[in-house]
Amino acid sequence: MIRSVVFDVGETLLDDTREFQAWADWLRVPRHTLSALVGIVVAQGRNNAEAFQYLRPGIDLAVERERRERAGHGEKISESDLYPDVRPALAELRRLGLWVGVAGNQTSRAAELLRQLALPVDAVATSGEWGVAKPDPGFFAQVMEFAPGAPDEILYVGDHRDYDVRGAQAVGLRSALIRRGPWGHLWADDPVIAGHGVWVLESLEQLPGLVRPG
Question: For residue 27, is pLDDT > 90?
């Protein structure tokens, strides 16, 4: 039985299009160039942050993010960035009595912005606040501290085969993959997903029917 459902952020709850476009504009490169480079590193199973190294070798994204903030072009998360199934799905999970959380590889600032959206969740946290990022087991140890239930009663939902599905399963959590964004579409039919009993979702609104208590 599932007691808690914890969601990744980018391309699970949020459409990352606007943020990647903002980065391309900040770095003064065509938006399709950054998108293509992200696609390449994703297909190679690498961190999407590595795409920025092709555009500006040696770039420190944390430093560059601070520069964006100081220039008035910092992180923004608004209602329009949410996928349309997010609020209905989260609200229904809570109505069913499940504990619902958000925890992803984002900055501390992103955590503040997510809380300002007042999503129907019990708690929000990010790797920037925890000081450890996926797929490090320490991140999922924090998830287990964060969410009620034994490991096999906690479901982690994300779009990334290695960071979300494998990372969660490595510490005994249940996992589900959402088929959207570049990673979700790339890996939805991957043998690792098919062979490990992972739920593959076309929409988050499928979740309540899968985890409904009793």
Answer: yes
User: 108-131 burial, b for 16+ CB within 10 Å, e for fewer?
Assistant: ebbbebbeebebebbebbbbbbbe
The pLDDT tens digits of the residues spanning 135-165 come to 999 999 999 999 999 999 999 999 999 999 9
| Threshold 0.90, pTM exceeds | yes
